[in-house]
């Protein structure tokens, strides 16, 4: 699983992806609306794909997801204009939905099969680090290759990402799927039981909402940060350094997540990223200093996902293995539903004034702080 995630996450284009979209004829609002396309597609695909994963095997869904990701990456060679990018996003989002949920489920059930589920937090951290490691270098490489923002430079960067997905597919073919608990009357009951579980476990829902909203706060900033920093006259290569810094820190934090959590305490580890994200948004409003803007950007990109290993372990521990992927994707569906009005609003506001996006991000950071605080007694492992 680690090698599979590593190569599918090269993301060499990511450091300049918003500038790539602009060069292919999109405006800022359309860039954000692409995220809405991703959300709607994920909403449609998440639960059915994970039902199939629980029913027929997670490995098959992972391989299907990588194939779709490869196709969406290949189409970027020719994409120009909003409709074409919508197609690439539909295919890419379907691939992501097939892959995610199934990979988390196969990871946790592998630990459960060997009696090591108590180590889920540590292993999840190392698994997430496999996604961060390539992004320490590759987006910087991408920003260096595409520093003049020429069409031929973008094509080279896309080719690197395509090769990564092919390598990921080869590695995925060697995955050994763990045995999972089965029930005689699964069929369509899996989805019903997933919904019932979430409705009955308010703490599980609270963890999910806290995680979702903080991610959304960072995500809406991420969708415009390259344009924000470019407008502040930051050189293109430094956009790649943003990825190097934030993914480097994420890699170290994920790899040592248990040590960091033990040092800070789990409650502080949950709380501090929310506060720091809000502080970074405020700093972005108050200054045009490139060093402060760069630092705030790195911090905002970190806080959106730094808590994922802890939240994954806490949430997976509350879900039975027979429909783990389905319940996980049902939680993802909650995120996708909430994304729709959010991205419609952000896309509209971005075309009026890009700083309105910062306002939305700040409000999102505030919501869990005020209304969805996690309590110590709600932690299970």
From TrEMBL:
<dbReference type="InterPro" id="IPR036259">
    <property type="entry name" value="MFS_trans_sf"/>
</dbReference>
<feature type="domain" description="Major facilitator superfamily (MFS) profile">
    <location>
        <begin position="1"/>
        <end position="380"/>
    </location>
</feature>
<dbReference type="InterPro" id="IPR020846">
    <property type="entry name" value="MFS_dom"/>
</dbReference>
<feature type="transmembrane region" description="Helical">
    <location>
        <begin position="236"/>
        <end position="255"/>
    </location>
</feature>
<dbReference type="InterPro" id="IPR005829">
    <property type="entry name" value="Sugar_transporter_CS"/>
</dbReference>
<dbReference type="InterPro" id="IPR011701">
    <property type="entry name" value="MFS"/>
</dbReference>
<keyword id="KW-0812">Transmembrane</keyword>
<keyword id="KW-0472">Membrane</keyword>
<protein>
    <submittedName>
        <fullName>Permease of the major facilitator super</fullName>
    </submittedName>
</protein>
<feature type="transmembrane region" description="Helical">
    <location>
        <begin position="275"/>
        <end position="303"/>
    </location>
</feature>
<keyword id="KW-1133">Transmembrane helix</keyword>
<feature type="transmembrane region" description="Helical">
    <location>
        <begin position="203"/>
        <end position="224"/>
    </location>
</feature>
<feature type="transmembrane region" description="Helical">
    <location>
        <begin position="348"/>
        <end position="371"/>
    </location>
</feature>
<dbReference type="GO" id="GO:0022857">
    <property type="term" value="F:transmembrane transporter activity"/>
</dbReference>
<feature type="transmembrane region" description="Helical">
    <location>
        <begin position="28"/>
        <end position="49"/>
    </location>
</feature>
<dbReference type="Pfam" id="PF07690">
    <property type="entry name" value="MFS_1"/>
</dbReference>
<dbReference type="GO" id="GO:0016020">
    <property type="term" value="C:membrane"/>
</dbReference>
<feature type="transmembrane region" description="Helical">
    <location>
        <begin position="152"/>
        <end position="175"/>
    </location>
</feature>
<dbReference type="InterPro" id="IPR053160">
    <property type="entry name" value="MFS_DHA3_Transporter"/>
</dbReference>
């Amino acid at each position: 699983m680690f090698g599979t995630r590593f190569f599918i996450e090269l993301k060499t284009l990511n450091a300049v992806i918003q500038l790539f979209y602009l060069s292919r004829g999109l405006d800022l609002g359309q860039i954000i609306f692409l995220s809405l396309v991703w959300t709607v597609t994920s909403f449609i695909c998440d639960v059915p794909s994970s039902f199939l994963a629980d029913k027929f095997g997670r490995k098959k869904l992972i391989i299907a997801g990588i194939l779709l990701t490869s196709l969406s990456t290949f189409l970027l060679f020719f994409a120009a204009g909003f409709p074409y990018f919508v197609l690439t996003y539909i295919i890419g989002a379907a691939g992501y939905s097939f892959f995610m949920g199934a990979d988390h489920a196969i990871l946790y059930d592998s630990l459960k099969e060997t009696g090591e589920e108590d180590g889920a937090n540590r292993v999840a951290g190392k698994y997430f680090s496999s996604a961060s490691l390539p992004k320490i270098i590759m987006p910087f490489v991408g920003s260096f290759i595409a520093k003049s923002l020429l069409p031929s430079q973008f094509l080279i960067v896309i080719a690197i990402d395509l090769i990564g997905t092919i390598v990921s597919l080869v590695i995925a073919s060697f995955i050994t799927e763990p045995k999972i608990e089965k029930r005689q009357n699964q069929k369509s009951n899996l989805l019903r039981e997933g919904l019932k579980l979430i409705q009955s476990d308010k703490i599980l829902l609270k963890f999910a909402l806290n995680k979702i909203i903080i991610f959304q706060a960072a995500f809406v900033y991420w969708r415009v940060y390259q344009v924000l920093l470019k407008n502040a006259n930051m050189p293109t290569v430094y956009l790649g350094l943003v990825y190097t810094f934030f993914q480097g820190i994420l890699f170290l934090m994920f790899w040592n997540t248990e040590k960091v959590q033990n040092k800070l305490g789990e409650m502080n580890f949950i709380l501090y990223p929310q506060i720091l994200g809000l502080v970074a948004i405020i700093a972005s409003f108050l200054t045009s200093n490139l060093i402060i803007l760069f630092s705030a950007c790195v911090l905002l990109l970190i806080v959106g996902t730094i808590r994922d290993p802890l939240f994954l372990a806490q949430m997976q521990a509350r879900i039975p293995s027979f429909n783990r992927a389905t319940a996980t994707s049902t939680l993802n569906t909650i995120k996708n539903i909430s994304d729709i009005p959010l991205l419609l609003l952000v896309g509209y506001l971005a075309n009026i004034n890009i700083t309105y996006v910062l306002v939305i991000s700040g409000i999102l950071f505030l919501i869990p702080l005020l209304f969805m605080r996690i309590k110590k007694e709600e932690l299970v492992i």
